[in-house]
Description:
The protein has helices spanning 79-84, 86-97, 134-149, 179-188, and strands spanning 3-5, 8-10, 16-18, 47-49, 68-70, 113-116, 122-126, 129-133. It is an alpha+beta fold. It has a three-stranded antiparallel β-sheet with strand order 1-2-3, with no helix packed on it. A hairpin with a 2-residue loop joins strand 7 and strand 8 (129-133). The radius of gyration is 23 Å and the shape is extended.
Amino acid sequence: xxxxxxxxxxxxxxxxxxxxxxxWATGAAAPAWLRETGLALDPQGFIAVDATLxxxxxxxxxxxxxVAAVLPHPRQxxxxxxxxxxxxxxxxxxxxxxxxxxxxxxxxxxxxxxxGTADGRAIALRGPLALSGTWPWRLKxxxxxxxxxxxxxxxxxxxxxxxxxxxxxxxxxxxxxxxPVLSAALRRLGAAxxxxxxxxxxxx
Length: 204
């Protein structure tokens, strides 16, 4: 498809299909730049890793989440699998740094998927079971809000007495928190409304 409008869609071969509603159903696609890394990839172009989340071609490289394909445990691309690979990924990196062998990651067989339909309802999927209604949407909202709430009261980062306190601590991608959480932290510091605080993506 090369174009979509109110009267239908135009396909790559020039055909026009009349439609009142067009739905795009797309799957996960591997980034094109992975082909330039020299890493072993699976047939779909994702980084091929073993059960310990290590690259098949470069054992010093670990990969997890949607960019990776765990060949011994193939799973669909979904956030639930990516999130749960975080803990075993961290553990295996620590094992490697300590000179120990990394341990295999064993994911659960099925996971609950909740897909909102933008009308106050959702579809719940788990294995061969599929249900829809308002209760899956309420369940999804509860799960999402509980997840975000976990970041509202983070414990203080310990500072070793033998080292001077750093001027700034950066958590990189791990520092991405929702705007309300960051605003609450700034209010505690008395800097929420300071001139140096920008409330939009771009500067002045």
